[in-house]
Amino acid sequence: MMTRRPVDTGDPERLYTVTGGRCRADDDSLDLVTLIVTECEPSHGMQSEHVRILELCRAPTAVVEISAELRLPVTVVRILLCDLLVTGRVTARHPPVGRFRGSLPDTDLLKEVLDGLRNL
C-alpha cells in the first residue's frame, strides 16, 4: 500500500527565501503539463534552483516533473520558471487548448469503462 506524504514538505522559511517572498507567479499560463526548454547554459552566480531547472530542461520537461525533481511545491516552481522566462533563459511550450476537445470520449463511456475495470 502506498503511503501519502504531505504536499508541502519544504521549510516555509526556505521557500520564502527561494521565491524572494513572492507567493504567486507573474504568469498564470504555466499549467502542470506545460513543457519547459532551456535556451542557455547556467551562468556564474545564479540561484541554485534556477541552475537545477536549466539542467533539467535541456530536453522538454513538464512543470510537474520539474516540481517533483526539485522536491518543491508547484507554486514555487512556477515562480522560479517565471524568473527564467522573463530573462529568456527558458521557453514554455503550452499544450494545445481546444484542438482535441471534440475528440474526448463521452463521460458516460468513461464511467462504464471504470465500472468494468472495477469488476475485474
UniProtKB/TrEMBL annotation:
<protein>
    <recommendedName>
        <fullName>DUF742 domain-containing protein</fullName>
    </recommendedName>
</protein>
<dbReference type="InterPro" id="IPR007995">
    <property type="entry name" value="DUF742"/>
</dbReference>
<dbReference type="Pfam" id="PF05331">
    <property type="entry name" value="DUF742"/>
</dbReference>
